[in-house]
Design a protein that fits this description.
Elements: E1 2-3, E2 7-10, E3 15-19, H1 30-44, E4 52-56, H2 67-70, H3 76-94, E5 100-104, E6 108-109, H4 111-118, E7 121-125, E8 129-131, H5 145-153, H6 155-164, E9 168-169, H7 170-176, E10 181-183, H8 188-200, H9 204-217, H10 222-237, H11 240-251
Parallel strand pairs: 3-4, 4-5, 5-7, 6-8, 7-10
Antiparallel strand pairs: 1-2, 2-3, 8-9
Helix pairs in contact: 1-3, 4-5, 5-6, 9-10
Length: about 260
């Protein structure tokens, strides 16, 4: 376990990253951005990384940007630079080659919703909720939240929640596809780790290829998407993991994958 000022990293079969500012409801300030950039530089080079669970300390996932810290941003250019920086951090998070799972241990509010949407999958405790509160502060999403929400919910529902700031409960989010699993209160991290373990048990090369393919073909015309899909398929077809899976199938034994 590594303790930074605002982050905690736990390396196990599943790597867990916790934004740990519970007194500030895990709001993102400039020092947290510094640490996230540093941690992502480590994770991007970690060849042993198989899955990442992102959560918040205490009873909140992430409450958005730290308004106290951001009071120094007085001009449109100041706001743009902050938004571009945090947006780039979330793009790097979403581009990690392994599944990234948000464990919503509590509310995801404002920019916290955008952090959750930048993850590949989301597991929410029963008492967690989403609230796109940006509009109530006279602003809007800026960390990639709008395009990600649009891809998940479509135009009308995205517009509705962005304009009303109405809460989306965990069960509502499950029905909408915003989250993939709902756990009892206090068990979001456990549920996310269990999901992560399911994914870690799969052949690593295939997991990475599937994520890369879906990211690459989003919004791409079918013909081009199909070509890319076949290219990725051919790589994993020739892998040792595929051969191992076939041999295990014929010999009726569990496969042992090595990621090659």
């Amino acid at each position: 376990m590594q303790h930074w000022k605002n982050l905690i990293i736990e390396h196990d079969a599943i790597t867990q990253l916790t934004v740990n500012r519970p007194e500030q409801r895990n709001a993102i300030d400039f020092s947290t951005m510094d640490e996230l950039e540093a941690v992502l530089s480590i994770l991007e080079q970690d060849t042993a990384l198989r899955a990442l669970v992102l959560t918040g300390g205490g009873d909140t996932f992430i409450s958005g940007g730290d308004l106290k810290d951001f009071q120094t941003l007085l001009t449109a250019d100041d706001g743009r630079r902050m938004a571009e920086r945090m947006g780039a951090i979330l793009t790097r998070l979403s581009c990690l080659p392994v599944p990234v799972i948000a464990a919503l241990n509590g509310p995801a509010v404002g920019g916290g919703t955008e952090v959750a949407l930048a993850c590949d999958l989301r597991v929410a405790a029963a008492d967690a909720y989403f609230s796109f509160r940006q509009v109530t502060m006279g602003i809007m999403t800026a960390w990639g939240g709008a395009p990600r929400l649009l891809a998940l919910l479509g135009f009308a529902r995205s517009l509705y929640y962005l304009l009303t700031a109405e809460r989306i409960t965990a069960e509502q989010a499950l029905q909408m596809g915003l989250v993939q699993r709902v756990t009892p209160e206090g068990h979001a991290v456990t549920g996310a780790i269990e999901l992560g373990q399911q994914l870690v048990d799969q052949p690593p090369l295939a997991v990475r290829a599937i994520k890369q393919t879906l990211r690459h073909i989003t919004g791409v015309p079918f013909e081009a998407a199909a070509v890319f899909e076949v290219q990725e398929f051919s790589k994993v077809w020739a892998s040792d993991d595929h051969l191992e899976a076939v041999q295990a199938f014929f010999h009726k034994r569990p496969p042992v994958f090595h990621g090659r």
